[in-house]
Specification:
133 residues, mainly alpha
Length: 133
Amino acid sequence: MTENERSGRPDLDHVEDFFAAARRAPPEPSPALLARMLEDADARRPAAVQGAGTAGPAPSGLLASLRAIFGGWQTAGGMVMATAAGVWIGFSGVGGITDAASGYLGATEVLGTVELMPESDVLAFATELEGQE
């Protein structure tokens, strides 16, 4: 028995004929089935959706206008969190940041003299990329 070129398995040769026939003529649902499906969907649709179209008065006031400016409560919540983080960092100061940075850089080095990407490492990386191509 020869291997099938598409599946690579000789035990699936007889099934490929059925799949090819199904691809040539996909089954179409009958109009009666489609009508029953639409009737069932209309019956299950909530009553509020069927009577949609009557909106209440637009909210007014300071909070409603702020919500409209920011684009909703989700955006306003993000703005509040960013403001709270800024106030927290502003009151706590940057003393903790310099302590953490000195742990990475060393106590004797100045930030302006630190080589974060020395030239020898950059050239080594470039030669690795050239060797892969």
